[in-house]
């Protein structure tokens, strides 16, 4: 099957892109890398009147540091992060997530902003960036606003994007020098969508951390205080992980199948173990 007929416009700058989104004629879709939208067009799951191709907008490809915050343009590709063209928030954190997304051909074109806008529960960036405390910067003709990623992701394939709005950047605070990041994905084979995702940031030196369970039929589950998974406080390792707490959270979120909950809990546990292992050795000793 081929896509239905549509008009295609490639704006030269952000102002032109926002003008097009502010005065739509019929159904309008935004395309950056096209790795999700392309197949949907060919399957006629969407039949837009107009596609606004933002891949050539320079403002959306910027990477910069603002104090202790890394600003990643929404048009940044997965490969940009994998290859180190964009700054990382810590030691091999964003690069490690990026390198595990699908295949290199997809990573060369797929974008961080596109992944977040699509909000597929099985995608890597929603879960990973939630664990890293990301903030989304949105723009429209009436101005800009920022939202914590947890408020932006409202459900499976659902976001807080308003009509005429565009993701312009992702903002992530640089990780603490004593923190470790864990990210584990369960899929049938390399390149396939995940059946379970776990992400965690643990700072043993501070006795704090948070964790995320993704690849659910809803927005990811966020444990703002990972201490609840360890009997009240994050300790120096993951040996005291309480599976029953994570299992109860999954059941409350509507995951009724016991085998499915077991897989999600185990993937979360492995992400936490990885986070502890990747925390700098001096921090682990201090804890």
TL;DR?
With 287 residues, this protein is of the alpha+beta class. The chain has helices at residues 14-22, 37-42, 78-82, 94-99, 104-109, 112-118, 124-131, 149-152, 243-252, 258-278, 281-286, and strands spanning 7-9, 28-31, 50-53, 63-66, 69-73, 135-140, 143-148, 153-155, 158-159, 166-173, 180-186, 196-203, 208-214, 221-223. It has 3 domains: 7-53, Uridine Diphospho-n-acetylenolpyruvylglucosamine Reductase, domain 2 (2-Layer Sandwich), CATH 3.30.43; 58-173, Uridine Diphospho-n-acetylenolpyruvylglucosamine Reductase, domain 3 (2-Layer Sandwich), CATH 3.30.465.10; 180-279, CO dehydrogenase flavoprotein, C-terminal domain (Enolase-like, domain 1, 2-Layer Sandwich).
Features:
disordered C terminus, oxidoreductase, 287 residues, Enolase-like, domain 1, alpha+beta, 4-stranded antiparallel β-sheet
CATH topology of the largest domain: Uridine Diphospho-n-acetylenolpyruvylglucosamine Reductase, domain 3
By DSSP, the count of extended strands is 14
Kindly report how far apart the N and C termini lie. Answer: 58 Å
* Alpha-beta classification: alpha+beta
Helix content: 25-40%
The first-level CATH class name of the largest domain: Alpha Beta
Please give the largest β-sheet: 5 strands, antiparallel
Radius of gyration equals 19 Å
Beta percentage is 15-25%
Unreliable residue runs: 283-287
Molecular shape: globular
CATH architecture of the largest domain: 2-Layer Sandwich
